[in-house]
Specification:
Elements: H1 8-14, H2 54-63, E1 64-66, E2 72-74, H3 76-81, H4 83-94, H5 103-123, E3 149-153, E4 156-159, H6 160-172, H7 177-180, H8 201-213, E5 219-221, E6 227-230, H9 232-235, H10 244-252, H11 257-264, E7 271-273
Parallel strand pairs: 6-7
Antiparallel strand pairs: 1-2, 3-4, 5-6
Helix pairs in contact: 4-5, 5-6
């Protein structure tokens, strides 16, 4: 869930706006737009080519633990011990002829590559408490790893921003992308304990959506009946219908129980929040 780098002029203006530090966090103003990178649009319908995600799935099953409140935690020390396997998997993805895949296989390919790269960049910076502290993106006002070139596919250096905002969002135009790509933070939808695969992708994406919407990270009702949502729905509101009503209608597709009953009679969002704390295992306290 990276943030677009603001211009110096915008930063100066925000410095004089009273809302910038209070009711409207500056982050929501700079969520990246979906801007199509056309070279990645070709695909091969009915292709028999398949990408083997077995190593990635084995790593996920071995090194993810669901905490007491349902948050999926990553054992980064465990991933580090299997670093050679992770590097080998990323290398095989990088060597894949992506345009030879059909659309569903491409969809799974890009999600898995994004998540594997995110885990790997965290391993390269083991002391950070938040992925935003991995300050390797180029640019004076950049932060985090999202603008750094992390892999080369078919001769094209790629950043996490490229994969999410120039490939996944504009090509596949599916809001469930935001439940699948993981930014190594507590506030993010969970890193799923299995690889995404084309033949089960619809089920996986729906399950991710349901888990997040029905968890307090996705939505909660305060004591006065106000609806508070993840900032994901604010940053990328255009992907969820473009309005607060659109966000609520999207959430109703997955909401259950008391939350669903409340959303049926709700027309506005009272607030939003996001926890950027690293999603690593914490041994001395619960999540």
């Amino acid at each position: 869930m990276p943030l677009r780098r603001p211009s110096l002029l915008v930063l100066l203006i925000l410095g004089f706006l009273p809302f910038a530090a209070s009711s409207a966090p500056w982050e929501r103003l700079f969520a990246p737009d979906a801007e199509l990178w056309e070279i990645w649009t070709p695909y091969t319908p009915d292709s028999g080519a398949r990408v083997d995600h077995g190593d990635w799935e084995a790593l996920l099953k071995a090194h993810l633990v669901r905490g007491p409140n349902g948050v999926m935690r990553a054992d980064y020390a465990g991933f580090a011990r299997d670093r050679a396997v992770l590097d080998g998997y990323v290398a095989r993805l990088a060597a894949t002829e992506v345009r030879d895949l059909d659309r569903p296989d491409q969809f799974a390919y890009w999600i898995n590559l994004y998540n594997a790269l995110t885990v790997r960049v965290v391993l390269d910076h083991p002391e950070v408490e938040s992925i935003r502290d991995i300050d390797i993106s180029p640019g004076l006002f950049a932060s985090g790893p999202w603008g750094a070139e992390l892999v080369t596919v078919q001769g094209q250096p790629l950043t996490l921003n490229d994969i999410e905002h120039r490939i996944l969002r504009p090509i596949f135009a599916d809001p469930r992308i935001h439940y699948a790509v993981n930014c190594a933070s507590i506030g993010c939808p969970d890193l799923r304990p299995e690889a995404y695969e084309s033949d089960r992708l619809e089920t996986q994406l729906d399950d991710q959506a349901s888990r997040y919407v029905n968890h307090s990270r996705g939505a909660r009702i305060d004591s006065e009946g106000g609806l508070h949502v993840s900032s994901v729905y604010v940053w990328f509101r255009e992907d969820f219908g473009g309005t607060e009503k659109g966000v609520i209608e999207h959430m109703l597709r997955y909401a259950e129980g008391t939350l669903r009953n409340h959303l049926i009679t709700t027309s506005e969002i009272a607030g939003d929040a996001y926890d950027w704390q690293l999603n690593g295992i914490v041994l001395d306290k619960t999540d």
